Amino acid sequence: MKQYIVRRIGYSFLSLFLLSLTIFVFVRLTGDPATLLVEPGASEADLQAIRVQFGLDQPLYVQYWHFIASFAVGDLGQSFYYRTPVLDLYLQRLPNSLLLAATAMSFSLLIGIPTGILAAVRVGKFWDTTGKIFALLGLSLPAFWVGLVLILFFSVYLGWLPSSGSGTFWHLLMPAFSLGWFFAAAHMRLTRSSMLEVLGSEYVKLARLKGLPEALVIGKHAFKNALIPVITLAGINLVVMINVAIVVETVFAWPGIGRLLYEGITFRDFPIVQGVVVIGGAMIVMVNLVVDIFYALIDPRIRLES
Amino acid sequence: MSRIARLPIIATRRGVIGLAAAAALGVEARAADASQITIAAHVSLAPTWFDPAETAGIITPFLLLYALHDAVAKAMPGETLAPCLAESWSTAPDGLSYDFVVRPGVKFHNGEPVTAEDIKFSFERYRGAAHDVMQERVAAVEVVDPLHVRFRLKAQWPDFMTFYAASSGAGWIVPKKYVEQVGDEAFKKAPIGAGPYKFVSFKPGVELVLEAFDDYWRKKPAVKRLVFRVIPDESTRLAALERGEVDVAMSIRGELAEEVTHKPGLVLRPTVGSAPYWLYFPEQWDPKSPWHDQRVREAVNLAIDRKTMNEALTLGYSHLTGSVFPENFDFYWQPPAPVYDPGRAKKLLAEAGFAGGFDAGDYHCDSAYANLGEVALNNLQEIGVTVRLRPLERAAFFKAYAEKKLKGIIQGASGAFGNCATRAENFMVKGGTYVYGDYPDIDALFARQATEMDQAKRTELLWKLQQLVRDKTMYVPLWQLAFISAVGPRVEQSGFGLIKGYVYPAPYEELTLKTRT
């Protein structure tokens, strides 16, 4: 078991290292940020001064070493655009993202799981078809379009909700719905398929043969087991919601981490992009690590196989 | 209600439900009160814009600098360089020093007086875009007395005021005592300046709240509070304006701008900045290239239908220009208006030996303005010149442009600050960042004006230089791009367009709301 955990932790560090290297290289492939920090047509001297100021004149390996060494001590560097430590910016936006993600996740689970169960126990019937349409729309309608339609309808036409911004519960509703719908659809589909698999298993058949009430078979025996992959996915989705709700946060002017990342990309602000991506990656790696260890604890086959 | 009225089928029921729900939810459609103007900003506001010392070579920080701070001299309505914190200045006869007289009785937001020490301190801590050039050329700053400061130069520098007092940020003044007391970082969190509005609060990425500074030397601002709300999406900005959540929506383009013209109560406020767009022929110095023949370049000049381009892309608000120098720059020479004459263009091409047209290769542009290129492409096609549009992401485009890697036609632009001399230095004169070749007569004129301290003579030299650029069809100017914003029904004076060549609202002390009847 100890060896298994150590190996998993090693893989996690390797993943993070590869992620940091990838994002470091990729942001630099997008071009020179100095050109975005001056007006078009600025002189080469102006551009060079900016490169020197931000250390972009250094060889790449030196820049990468600075990035990694600083990251190891919790320093994500300073934003080119905001001239503020990236960690400060991240922590300023984190509460907003947590609030949005938690609300959107609650919405997606409250809608996605019951709809998925209903669709699974009524395969090919009305609820199944309705659920499939709901999932199809949620997954295929672009979030920015959903957002704009919501703004037009609820803010401009009806005047019920503020069009954008943050600060009150009412500001939260439209962005949470826009974000949550996509994930609700994903959770619904996974719940449905997971439930169908479980409902077809031998122990559920046995439960039915024993004459247990259908509600008990579904609620106690099938649902509990079908929920594991959904919860695992929800955990990872929560991290995604926190860190990369770029479109929704931009459309609704929601001051979260997704918008910070968007700003970082727009202004080619390398430290912001690197910081947000690596923190997001670290969260996902952490979730996976915890899940792996948890699986190993509850299922001896996993640790024995590994 | 006007929106609801347009949906007759469910108007009444929905209107009642809407009003009831809005009342129940406590949502205020109109966030702004009678003494507040809320501006929906199109960009995230950076704390560095609170500190003039950090002014990068872009215009955006001035959105806030004009509110929070004041400068020794700055662009104001009707004046390129108006005396502000300095009530006057003079140049020594040898051109080696500039003396500024501080306006007496002017205060910072904390009540401290603005003094010569603050001007010296602000200059010395300046680390913005023009830092290197200022340090290279300014020998010393001396405080003669509390209201008198002298800048000593290492050599004559006719453009000193352009760099110091125009849009470099070097001439914007911060309170020495306060900055020394709190430090640079704390200053950005709670800035104090001598501008018409005081800092109240800032939520990064959300909003900035400012309050009128009643003791502002020029006049007491009429609007008590200014709130900048960051709304990155254009459609959302417009929705917020329609709902009355904001009073001004900055940067509304294309179809959305067109939509504003049909909405009662909303008006467009287009402003034209200092960013001319042009076509450039990097191979004009190559005798084997068709672009070497001036008639071919002139044919392109005549083939571009700027009027249609303007109406189609910026609702006719951009300024059509015959110059690649911004109209509001010092030493600007007014060229004749550009002409659209495809017939004459074809004739010129035939005279140059290209009666059947020719394949001109690639048309390079910043992808954000590829729409401009598409129109130009069609215009060129009409006279038989075939080009392929090669839009590049902005950074990559300017990098390739500066590294002299592009061939064919370059659709360029510049919004860099300066005057006509600095513009020529970067784009026309040998060794310039974006210069692919040069003309000796233009270079000679540039060298002469660089040491000419007599303004009249210098103007004459720079006018001649601009005439030569035009006569040689070194460039084909397109337009000076319009920046379009929309203003809501409560605002009387939005401040847009008061300062020539400046695209944001300013001066803020001039902003007014309509009086309620």
Provide structural commentary.
The complex is a heterodimer of chains A (306) and B (517). Chain A is mainly α. Helix content of chain A is 78%, strand content 0%. In chain A, helix 4 (86-121) packs antiparallel against helix 5, helix 6 (143-157) crosses helix 7 and helix 9 runs parallel beside helix 11. The radius of gyration of chain A is 23 Å and the shape is flat. With 517 residues, chain B is α+β, with helices and mostly antiparallel strands. Chain B is 32% helix and 24% strand. Chain B is built from 17 helices and 21 strands. In chain B, the strands form 5 sheets. In chain B, strands 1, 10, 11, 12, 13, 14, 15, 16, 17, 18 and 19 form an 11-stranded mixed sheet that branches. A 4-stranded antiparallel sheet of chain B has the order 5-6-8-7. In chain B, strands 2-9 form a two-stranded antiparallel ribbon. In chain B, strand 3 and strand 4 (79-83) form a beta hairpin. In chain B, helix 10 (294-303) packs antiparallel against helix 12 (342-351) and helix 16 packs antiparallel against helix 17. Chain B is globular, with a radius of gyration of 25 Å. Classes of the chains: A mainly alpha (306), B alpha+beta (517). The interface between A and B is large, with 53 and 66 residues.
**Helical run tally of chain B:** 17
In angstroms, what is the radius of gyration of chain B? 25 Å
Mean pLDDT of chain B: 88
Terminal residue distance of chain B: 20 Å
So how many helices of chain A? 13
Termini separation of chain A comes to 9 Å
Which range best describes the helical content of chain B: under 10%, 10-25%, 25-40%, 40-55%, 55-70% or over 70%? 25-40%
- Counting copies of identical and different chains, the oligomeric state is heterodimer
Alpha-beta classification of chain A = mainly alpha
Number of strands of chain B: 21
Question: Globular, elongated, flat, extended or rod-shaped: what is the shape of chain B?
Answer: globular
Largest pleated sheet of chain A? none
Shape of chain A: flat
Structural category of chain B is alpha+beta
Mean pLDDT of chain A: 85
Largest sheet of chain B: 11 strands, mixed
